[in-house]
Amino acid sequence: MAAPVLRWSCPARRWILANIDRGPRHGRGSPTGSRSSGKRGQSSVAQQPLATAQKPRKGEHQWAAVVGLEIHAQISSNSKLFSGSQVHFAAPPNSLVSFFDASLPGTLPVLNRRCVEAAVMTGLALNCHINKKSLFDRKHYFYADLPAGYQITQQRLPIAVKGSLAYSVFVGKNRNQVINKTVRIKQIQLEQDSGKSLHDDLRSQTLIDLNRAGVGLLEVVLEPDMSCGEEAATAVRELQLILQALGTSQANMAEGQLRVDANISVHHPGEPLGVRTEVKNLNSARFLAKAIDYEIQRQIEELENGGEILNETRSFDCKLGCTVPMRDKEGKQDYRFIPEPNLPPLLLYDSASLPAGADPQQVINIDQLREQLPELPRVTREKLVQQYGMLPEHSFTLLNEVGLLEFFQNVMKETRAEPKRVTSWVLNTFLGFLKQQNLAVSESPVTPSALAELLNLLDQKTISSAAAKKVFEELWRSGGKTPAQIVSEKRLELMQDQEALEELCQATMEKHPQVVMDLKKGNPRAINKLIGLVRKATLNRADPTVIKEMLERQLSS
Amino acid sequence: MWARAARRVLRAPGGGGRGFASKAGGGGVSAGGEAAPQERGRVPGDVIEHLERLALVDFGSREAVARLEKAVAFADRLRAVDTDGVQPMESVLEDRCLYLRPDNVVEGNCAEELLQNAHRVMEEYFVAPPGNITLPKLDEQELFSKS
Fold first, then answer.
1. Which helix (H) or strand (E) holds A517?
2. Which one of A234, A327, A345, A421 has the lowest number of neighbouring Cβ atoms within 10 Å?
3. Are A212 and A195 in contact (CB under 8 A)?
């Protein structure tokens, strides 16, 4: 039986999957073709020999995947969106809950100014149009962690619309070719977070903690402009960096401050869009791309097997590495949206429309917020490239690793070494050591000052490159000592005495006449052997290039 | 009366005058009323069931459903008004100022008080059933209004 060859292309990589058996595909262990080895390029399951295939090449199925995201970011504020109880990650259950958060009768929502400012700043940073008038609505559904039975959100007229988020994917063999992409932002809205449910399956009950209920969220809706897990993950990472730079959200996925839901569908290019599924609560950066790619693969296989895709909600089981349907979410939800009767429209102003004599605490000026916007990641990267002449992909790495940029800048402050050298040491050596031991920059045993001092020694040619690496290793291990101390302890200084070196060169040549003969005969490797011998004689305290020069000079004279 | 109102509605152009109910995009009742204007504006049985699940109300009797139908018909009289070019009023508060509160912590720390109201608690958590408990599906014969 001819095997149809499936092809799903994504700018970052090409997938070729041969569908050879039509057995049941439920409960697959790991998603096929997932990036387990971290290598780019093709990953194919055993292919049928094409000689037996009846289909002409043109008949190969092409699949295009369409991914849209709904991102919920917890606003970084002291108190909640509509009440004065505290926003804090870890606290005794139900201790950060006000009467309003518990939806006791007689309580009313009071809007937090900081949350509105956070929404406007985020909208401006994402090139959105800020709606000077926006409205609050109630979205009704029943769940134990939603005490009021509805969530206050902005469905009809959100605070910001029609923006864009630019991000870059790196392709090519060395991942050094940049492709700049943009995803459109449909809207940004303010809404309440729900409480937390802890499922106690043993006693068949759910424990509810309302500390999180009512915390302000920014929901950022990204249009389905992305086509694979990597694009989605990169876009989310960039959004994280922007939110962190603005200070509007700490956007830490591990602490639940950033949650992503993905809407995924597949179709043949040129044909209408397919049925989409929603994959909810992708709460880990690691699994985000994996889950999306798995779902795309699952849909392709399902359709290729003649099945159909249900418009359902699924969640990602990270242990099994697959998406599974969620219970309690079957069937279409009817949220019965109504305007929030207790809140008037939210009005924002700019410098032109600001009413005279208005209480500054009670009005928000969009222009003023725009002027106060801090530097965005894109600009920081551009400055790094311009100022230090580094490659674009290096600027991305510096920003992507928490604390690395600060580390780099601190080293630059204290060293005379060239930026290119500093960049190389920070991104290759330093980062390499961190990754090997799975440490964060903040946990590094080597301080910026120590590295700066080491690079100065290297720059002054007090030590050789190889010696510097040894010193770095020792710095990492010992922690307390300074580079200078280590250099003197291990006697790693380069020989400064030129005469002594000259003598050593002479002596070595005299000791090994056959090598010198080889060299004179024209054997190119002989010179390296000689250099090696001299180095050994100097106990590795001489620069090979200097040795080479000296030898060549002595030989020619 | 209802029929006369319906005719007037059909003659008036769409414009921006539709009430909020039609924009909600999901309200089963308005869809039933608009899409298929029945003889006496009856609400179909499956819509009643749907409403009972959504709002956790129990219509219970034919009289209750009849009251619902009368209420819908009463509200439908709004469609008789020509609201062409008139901005919808979303809230009677639309002229009011939305007060902005400073970002200070002034509430909370009353777990004991809040937990007092709960039926069941466990170590400072509210206790709830394991998931949403779905209502039993009503038998066809138990429904009072026919589709």
1. helix A513-521
2. A327
3. yes
DSSP A321-361: TEEEEPTT--S------EE-TT-PPEE-B-TTTPPTT--TT
3-state secondary structure A197-235: EEEECCCCEEEEEHHHCCCEEEEEEEEEEECCHHHHHHH
**CB neighbours of A11 closer than 8 A, spacing ≥ 6?**
A169, A171, A179, A181, A227, A231
Contacts of A472 (CB under 8 A, 6+ apart): A429, A433, A446, A451, A454
| Total CB pairs under 8 A between chain A and B | 160
Q: What is the mean pLDDT of residues A139-143?
A: 92
Q: What are A165-186's pLDDT values in tens digits?
A: 999 998 887 777 889 999 999 9
pLDDT single digits (tens) A379-417:
999 999 999 888 888 999 999 888 899 999 999 988 888
Give me the sign of the Cα torsion angle A458, A464, A469, A472: negative
Burial of A434 (0-12, 13-18, 19+ CB in 10 A): buried
How many domains is chain A partitioned into structurally?
3
- What letter represents residue B51's amino acid? L
Domain CATH code at residue A542: 1.10.10.410
* Structural domain boundaries enclosing A182: 5-339
Mark whether A449 and A301 lie in a shared domain: no
By residue count, chain B amounts to 147
- Do residues A142 and A264 share a domain? yes
Residue A219 lies in a domain: yes
User: A265-304: buried (b, 16+ CB within 10 Å) or exposed (e) per residue?
Assistant: bbbeeeeeebebbbbbebbebebbbbbbbbbbbbbbbebe
**How close B131 comes to chain A (CA, Å)?**
7
Instruction: Say which residues have a Cβ less than 8 Å from residue B20's Cβ, sequence separation at least 6.
Output: A338, A339, B88, B90
Angle at B23 between CA B18 and CA B26, to 5 degrees: 140
Of the candidates B24, B94, B103, which has its C-beta nearest A345's C-beta?
B94
User: Residue A188, SS3?
Assistant: strand
3-class DSSP assignment, residue A427:
helix
What separation, in Å, do the N-terminal and C-terminal C-alpha atoms of chain A show? 78
Q: What is the pTM of this model?
A: 0.78
Complex prediction ipTM: 0.74
Interval A183-203 mean pLDDT: 94
Which of A93, A337, A346 comes nearest B125 by C-beta?
A93
End-to-end CA distance of chain B: 22
Give the C-alpha separation, A279 to A277, whole Å: 6
Question: Using the beta-carbon criterion (under 8 Å), do B128 and A208 form an inter-chain contact?
Answer: yes
Is the backbone of residue A175 left (phi > 0), alpha (psi -120 to 50) or beta? left
Tokens of A364: 């928000």
